[in-house]
Amino acid sequence: MYETFKGKRVIWESKTKWIKNVITAVLFVCVILFARHALPPILFWLAIIFFGGMGTFALVWLLHPKNLFVSPGSQLGEEILDFWKREKEEDYGSFSYTANGFSFKENQHKIFYKWNDIETVFAHEEEISYDQMCLDIFMHNGSRLEIMEETPGWYKFKERLIKHVSLKPFVWDKEEPGYDPELTLLYDKKGRTLEEAEEDLYND
Question: Which stretch of DSSP H or E encloses residue 97?
Answer without folding.
Answer: strand 95-97
